[in-house]
Amino acid sequence: MNWQQMVLYLVLGILIGAVLGFFISRYVTKREMEKNPPVTEKMIRAMFLQMGRKPSEAQIRAIMKTMGQDTTKKADKK
């Protein structure tokens, strides 16, 4: 095996590893975001209370709905 083959195998190995790493990390990140959404109803309530407002259930549902629509629109585009 000469040095040219070794360099070729090294470059191919790095490229394949980078591509596989990208797709695996993307899959894991999507799965974690579905299991643990970045913002929950409890967090929205806390934000409203910090602003000095008493949130109604309809307001909280509306915010969650708009956030859900935003994430589904982004996912549909990709």
Describe the model:
The protein has helices spanning 3-35, 41-50, 57-77. The chain starts with a helix and ends with a helix. It has 3 helices and no strands. It folds into 2 domains: 1-36; 38-78. The protein has 78 residues and is mainly α. The model has no long low-confidence stretch (mean pLDDT 87).
Globally, the shape reads rod-shaped
- The arrangement of helices and strands along the chain is HHH
Number of domains: 2
Q: How many β-strands, per DSSP?
A: 0
Average pLDDT: 87
Individual helix count = 3
Q: Label the structural class.
A: mainly alpha
Approximate strand percentage: under 5%
Cα(first) to Cα(last) distance is 43 Å
Using the CA coordinates, give the radius of gyration.
22 Å
Poorly predicted parts: none
Q: How would the blueprint of this fold be written?
A:
Layout: H1 3-35, H2 41-50, H3 57-77
Structure at a glance:
By secondary structure, the protein is mainly alpha-helical.
Which features characterize this protein?
single chain, 78 residues, mainly alpha, 3 helices, 82% helix, 0% strand, rod-shaped
